[in-house]
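Re: Re: token formats

Sure, here are both.
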Amino acid sequence: MHAVRTASGHPVCRVAFSPCGNWFATAQPNHGVTVYDRAGAAVRTVGSPRWTDYTGLTFCHGGAWIAAAGLKGIAVYDAATGACLGSTHYQSMRGFRLGSTGDVLLGVGRGAILELLVHPGEPMIGRTVWSVTAGESGEVSHEGRWAVAFRPTGRPIVVDLLSGQESHVLDHPARNRPNVPGQHAAPVVGFATAPRAALAAGTSVAVFDLTPAVDRPVASDELPAPRPVEKACFTLPPPNCWPAGKPWCPPFSLTPDGRGLLVKRPRERVQLWDVDAGTLDVEWSWRLDGITCLAVAPDGLTAVAGARHGRLVMWDLA
């Protein structure tokens, strides 16, 4: 275990690993985005605005760029120099969650999934690849294959970004969630490199298999069959000490193979659950105040926890 105190005392609200796993970036409100090496040494602080909130953080362009999203827009930076390559402050692109596929940056929010085309020195352009009426929020996977979107009513849906089609409907308590501010915690979604996704929407953390469905040919006069409702392959309920009726959306992260669920538990403990077996593998506990986010490296060997007061902890999962 290796503890790091960042240059700022503001909480670490986002952590993202580069595709190669040699670097990771953190986002801190009122401070910006900082790049660290695998040993936890700060490499550089990119020229990001000191936003009061960050909703998305990801590496793109093969790991050469870092993209950050907040309530004021989206900005992209050169990971090597920290220079700003482009930004947008359009009202329609605020509060997005971010992912990437190849050289294309993806954003999801406000009922739409956009391809964000970045050309250094030119305005950022967004092209809608999927949209839903009255959509709430969602998340896109880091490699850009999947996105989960929430409607104000109804079950969460999964979009296959390769085809632009809805591929799964998830049987999750987020369904029929009243859209009343302050009464429900915002849904949290995590993806694995394997075709799995985990959802937390206030009642449990559930893991779903996202194996692409095989569509049979449909005759021209035949209506397409409705998408089947996908059941969770693993569900982690709130701890026994959790107050009844209080939303529970803990920080969590799936391991790249989708077999492990890293999740924060009471008293600032972090547990690793075996999704396939449904058992607790290992638990860690540090003197860390207020864990806010968790991330696992692409090779599945290292994990990072961000916390309040600018604290980071890195440890070996093996």
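Second one below.
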Amino acid sequence: MPDVVAVDLGGTNIRAARVNERGEVLARDKTATLAESGMGAVAARMAELVNKVRGPETIGIGVGTPGTPDPDTGVMKSRAVNIPDSQGYPLCPELTRITGLPAGADNDGNLAALGEYWLGAARGEHIVLLFTLGTGIGGACVIDGHVYHGHSNLGTEFGHVSIDYNGRPCPCGVLGCVEQYGSAAAVGRDAREALAAGGKDARASLLWKLCGGDPAKADAKLVCDAVRDGDAYAGALLDRNCDYLATGIGALMNAFNPSCVILGGGMALAGEIVVGRVRTFLGKNRAYAPIFKDARIVAATLGDDAGLIGAARIAFDKAGVKV
């Protein structure tokens, strides 16, 4: 059975896995990224890792990067985070030159969505939207097994959909971006602000106790932990953030009419504490009712392997093997 090597280019480590047509991981390894050494050196380490993990039946390479590679040529259109000379670098051509294997690449968020479509929470769905809830909000869309990239390969910037044109400024330059209200970073910021404002309800809350009475220690995880243990104060805070998040998701559901919406990233690890709230608010006219009722709203299931599984999928495509 043929297999491929999937590569995840991270800021700290490069991970690689040999994956067969069933999506089974046959071997794994990783190496330090050493981003400061430059993109040429990073690509050489990627190729070395590929050659270490590959087997006699390996037919291709798939790469997930934090930047924006051209999906057709594999040349980096935008800089990969923390690798200053990566923009314009011919990543896939170089990997092919060194390893002799055809290579494809895509943004790591796109590949996480593709992985969930192939073998995860959205297996076999028609139109899939992925929202990654972390420091910001990442987005991706998969339609019938194909990543939607947009006209200039810059589509699905879901975190930068504005839900308040007079709202908080975002580093992207837009006012009121949904990631300023519904991301893990926003949940932590709002909790710190609420606790710092004081009041007897704040000081009587479990969240206050979990922070040791120091509002500066509050973050999204502590908020979710407090909610899980029944803290009404933390629950009200999280409700507000999830309502904002549902407003942004609902707007995109109305645009794409998806069959499945996946919530991933660190905050989604809280499970129904977050996913259930988003689902509830979506049902309160945050999305067009017929569209909402026809879509599943679920948590991602593949964890850190989602991007690797998606990278394997594009490697098989690049090699001309249908999986």
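The first strand starts at residue 3 and ends at 9. Residues 232-256 form the longest helix (25 residues).
- S.
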